[in-house]
Amino acid sequence: MKRTVFIDGQHGTVGLNIHERLNGRKDIELLEIPVEKRKDPKARQKLLNEADVVFLCLPDDAARESVSLITNKSVCVIDGSTAHRVTKGWIYGLPELNKEQRTLIKNSRRIVVPGCHATGFISILYPLVSKGIVAPDYPITSYALAGYSGGGKSMIGDYESEGAPDDIKNPRPYSLALNHKHIPEMTKIVGLAQSPLFNPTVVNVYNGEIIFIPLVVRYLKKQLSAEDIRAVLAAHYTGERFIKVMPYPPDDYLKDGFMTFTDCNDTNNLEIFVFGDSERVLLSARFDNLGKGSSGTAVQNMNLVLGLPEETGL
Questions:
Q1: Rounded to 5 degrees, what angle do the CA atoms 67, 73, 74 make?
Q2: Residue closest to 151 by CA, chosen among 204, 93, 113
Q3: Predicted confidence (pLDDT) per residue in 189-237, tens digit
C-alpha cells in the first residue's frame, strides 16, 4: 500500500532534495500543491491533514504555522526547520544517537531533523559525553566548513550569479557573534552544561561539510588517547549503516596529507576521523550537508516511521 507524503516547502533547497529522493518510489505517493496555491492556507491545510507524512522545509515561523493547521492526529510531521528542535514533545531525528532513539522515532508523530552542523557535532561528541569521557562542563570549541547550499536559494544565487564578486570565492566565516542557530540543539542533545564556542565557515563549494572539535587530553574526565577515543566511537557506532568511524591513524584515508571535502557528497554517509596522540585529540566528521545533514536524514526518519527498511531510497 502506498503511503502519502506532502512536502510543505517543496521548492526550497531541502524540499527539492527530498522530492528528488522520493520521486519515482513505488511505495510513496507525493501529494502536490499547485504553484499558485502554495501560500493559500486552505489548500495547504487540506494536504497537511491528508498526508501520512508531512515534511516541513520552511522558515521557522512558517513551520510553526503549518503545525498549527494540522488537526489530524495521525499525521506524522518531520520538521526540517529550527522551530521545534529543542521543543518538548518533539523527538530528535538522529537515529544513530543511542540505542533508544530509533524506537522513539518510530513511535513519534512529531520529529525534528537535526541541523547540518549539529549532525556532525553531536555524532562525534555525544558518545564521549554520555560515556563520561568528556565532562559536560568541558569548554568545547568547534569549527566547521560547509558548502554554500546550506544558505538556501538566496546564498546559492549569490555564489552562482555571473556578477558574483571575487571575495565570495574565499572561505567566509559567519555567525561571529557566536550565536549560530544550531547551538541550542548542540548543547541540549549532547548534554553540555554550557554552550560551545562554535565557528562555522561557508566555502565556495555547492555541498559538503567537515566539522572539527579539538580536545586536550589532560582536561578530559577520562584521559584517553586519540586511539582509545577512536575505539570508543567505533564501539558506539558498531553495525550502523550510515555512520562509519575511520581507522586510526587515518592517514591512508587522506590525500597527500589533506582531508578532502566532498567524499561523502550525494550519500547519506557520515565519516568520523580521530587525529592526534596521547596529549591532543582532533575529532572530525565529514558528510554531505544536503544528505546526512538534512534531506537524507529526513527520509531516513520517514522510513523508520513507515516501518520500511531504513536505507530505502538512500
A1: 110
A2: 204
A3: 999 999 999 999 999 999 999 999 999 999 999 999 999 999 999 999 9
Instruction: In whole angstroms, give the CA distance from residue 117 to residue 209.
Output: 8
Cell numbers 533547497 correspond to what residue?
13
8 A C-beta contact, residue 128 and residue 134: yes
Report the distance separating Cα 152 and Cα 267, nearest Å: 19
pTM value is: 0.96
Query: In degrees, to the nearest 5, what angle opens at C-alpha 214 toward C-alphas 14 and 278?
Result: 140
- The CA distances from residue 203 to 111, 168, 170, 259, 295, in Å, are 30, 8, 7, 15, 20
The three three-digit cell numbers of residue 313, written as one number: 531510497
**In this predicted structure, what is the pLDDT of residue 35?**
80
57, 76, 116, 264: which is the annotated catalytic residue? 116
Dmax over Cα atoms in the chain, in whole Å? Answer: 61
Q: Of how many residues is the chain composed?
A: 314
Q: b/e string for 214-246 if b means 16 or more Cβ within 10 A?
A: ebebeebeeebbbebbbebbbebbeeeebbebb
One-letter amino acid identity for 126?
Answer: Y
For the stretch 238-287, pLDDT in tens is 999 999 999 999 999 999 999 999 999 999 999 999 999 999 999 999 99
Domains and CATH numbers, the chain: 3-113+294-305 (3.40.50.720), 116-288 (3.30.360.10)
Q: Which residues contact 44 (CB under 8 A, 6 or more apart)?
A: 8, 33, 37, 38, 66, 69
Instruction: Give the relative orientation of helices 13-22 and 296-305 as an angle to the nearest 10 degrees.
Output: 50
Contacts of 135 (CB under 8 A, 6+ apart): 129, 220, 221
Q: What is the CA radius of gyration of the chain?
A: 20
57 is catalytic: no
